[in-house]
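Researcher: Go.
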Amino acid sequence: MTGVPASAAGGASPAGAPGKASAVGSAKGGGGGPKAGGGAEAGVAGGAKSARGGKIAAAAVNQASVWNIANLLTMLRLVLVPAFVALMLADGGYDPAWRSLAWAAFAIAMITDLFDGHLARTYDLVTDFGKIADPIADKAIMGAALICLSALGDLPWWVTAVILGRELGITLLRFLVIRYGVIPASRGGKLKTLTQGVAVGMYILALTGWLATLRFWVMAAAVVLTVVTGLDYVRQAIVLRRQGIAERKAALEETEA
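Model: Structure:
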């Protein structure tokens, strides 16, 4: 009766079984390591594909947004340019009826110019197309009107040269200094645009008497505002360039230090 108790004799086996199972499980688990790693790699790849898909979807949305109301108004202005020229020069360019229709096309173009930019900024409809097409449409309709008026002898060529030279020069200046910042539109520039539109519109119409005298003075005011605001833009561009160069120099000195 001195044998080993049953509990002691059998205790090693039950205790060892779990240990073996644990060891086997560990070995199997060790074999599952590459599988887990492969799952992680698959997850990363899937995430990359998802990110690429998101970018493609976003690009598709942005491309579709080109056809928004603001850009459609800009396109309308571009279409109105040849229509305006045709109406302006119809029947020799001196028929009051055709000139009135030309004025209507010019007025629609100028009114849409007021709305498309506002709509784009208010409802987040700003696109790369709009940034490029909007200023082109503005310059095209105004340039077409001025050139037609000068070609018909209604407006001196030097007035057309001053206005168009200023507009093209300031546009080029904006591109030259864009690396340093953006020159914001001033109140004077907005007043200039409004005065130019009113003056050119009055010259398009076949006005006589005191209205013809009035349009002369309105155009004179437009020319003065054109020159003054143009010089102000040049001043702002010089200041902006100097500030940009100073900031870059300071940043470079900090990096070297």
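Model: Confidence is low (pLDDT under 50) at residues 1-46, 55-64.
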